[in-house]
Amino acid sequence: MSLVLYLLDENVDPIYRTELLRRKPDLIVWKVGDPGAPPLGTLDPAILKWCEEHGFLLVTNNRRSMPRHLRDHIAEGSHVPGVLVFNPNDPIGGTLDDLLLIVAASDISEYHDRVVYLPL
């Protein structure tokens, strides 16, 4: 099983990282703007490239344009570990449960080049 690493895009509320790490302290969860991660303001296509280079699953609430950016990314011959898209209007607890379930019961390869909408 491959290690699941999460990159939260900059529009994801910081409570998601706080709560993920509270529930699973050894989980690797970075956020756009963190040292080593893409800087704040990075455009979505560059974030996908970064995720590809570093092996992170992208967690976003960008349902509108991220799927299109992923299609373009793949059409260019690039790949990505995966994009997990949640609805910010859904309860935080359910989204956290899904993200933790992915870590516990999935192999990162299951999400390769895919957009997966949460809840599962």
The portion of residues assigned to helices is 25-40%
From the alpha-carbon coordinates, what is the Rg to the nearest angstrom?
13 Å
Order of helices and strands: EHEHEHEHE
Order of the strands making up the biggest sheet: 2-1-3-4-5
Mean pLDDT across all residues, rounded? Answer: 94
Largest sheet: 5 strands, parallel
Parts with pLDDT < 50 across at least 5 consecutive residues: none
**Strand percentage, roughly?**
15-25%
Structural class: alpha/beta
Number of DSSP strand runs? 5
Rounded to the nearest angstrom, the distance between the terminal CA atoms is 20 Å
Q: Given the C-alpha coordinates, what overall shape results?
A: globular
Overview features:
about 120 residues, alpha/beta, 5-stranded parallel β-sheet, 4 helices, 5 strands, globular
Summarize the structure in words:
- The protein has 4 helices and 5 strands.
- With 120 residues, it is of the alpha/beta class.
- A 5-stranded parallel beta sheet has the order 2-1-3-4-5, with helices on both faces.
- 28% of the residues are buried.
Summarize the structure in short:
The protein is of the alpha/beta class and 120 residues long. It contains four helices and five strands; from the N terminus they run βαβαβαβαβ.
Topology readout:
Blueprint: E1 5-8, H1 15-23, E2 28-31, H2 44-54, E3 57-60, H3 66-75, E4 83-85, H4 92-105, E5 115-117
Parallel strand pairs: 1-2, 1-3, 3-4, 4-5
Helix pairs in contact: 2-3
